[in-house]
Amino acid sequence: MKVEALRVIEKVVSKIAPGRAPSFIEVHVIKALEAISAGEGVGRIKLSETLGLGGGATRTLVRHLRNEELIEVSRSGIVLSKFGEKVFSDLKSRISEEIEIPKSPLTVGAFNVAVLIRNAAGLVEYGVEQRDAAIKVGASGGYNISL
Length: 147
Description:
44% of the residues lie in helices and 10% in strands. It is mostly helical. It folds into 2 domains: 88 residues, Winged helix-like DNA-binding domain superfamily/Winged helix DNA-binding domain (Arc Repressor Mutant, subunit A), CATH 1.10.10.10; 41 residues, no CATH class. It has a two-stranded antiparallel ribbon with strand order 1-2. Strands 3-4 form a two-stranded antiparallel ribbon. Strand 1 and strand 2 form a beta hairpin. It is globular and about 50 Å long. The two termini are 27 Å apart.
């Protein structure tokens, strides 16, 4: 069974109860899965620091990840579940490594990178959403080129 990772990520960031919408976005979920997959159990505080989110947002993110059965939480930390490993594997197969872009008139920051996401051009409408997502996680700006 092929896992549709992007749909799972969308479910994680969606609102699950009355009240405010989550303050984290899809990029935070991907970064969380990456951080969790890198070790033998990561704590919420370390995850919060890695993602640049506050404690409350991190708790909510962990709850959403657990609701989608992507992670398992124990006293030794947070680890990916088997399903979480499948989702993360699917994501890794679709997202290229970062490629450093040299400074030019088209770049907006001192350090510039590009990332290719395979088979996702149909999900891009105007590119503004991707730029906004980049800024929310600390970028100076962003460009989107769909092929």
